[in-house]
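Progress report, Aim 2. The chain analyzed during this reporting quarter is listed below.
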Amino acid sequence: QVQLVESGGGLVQAGGSLRLSCVASGSIPNINAMGWYRQAPGKQRELVASISSGDVKNYVDSVKGRFTISRDNAKNTVYLQMNSLKPQDTAVYYCNLVVVYGPFGNVMNYWGKGTLVTVSS
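Predicted structure tokens for the chain:
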């Protein structure tokens, strides 16, 4: 089975930085994309950043210029570098993995358990 383990969350002051890491383990024949979602208290989960197998990166407008997503294919690891953090960034951040299995292209989504990021004012 595929497992995702996130790390790097914590408490930081506004303007500070954090780097989140997500390590994927298990049988992963073909990664289509990896990404980071977040969910703040009382709000719905939103896509923060994603990176495709072709290294195409996408960001939600609110984090453009502040966050950077990257990956290490050899380690099946995705990172989210978060700079100039704002209190509005406070949320549980979840790692997401999209995998394609077999010759018929079956697609599966996997999720980590989340890591809490708290930004104080």
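The chain is about 0% helix and 60% strand. The first strand starts at residue 3 and ends at 7. These observations will guide the mutagenesis work planned for the next reporting period.
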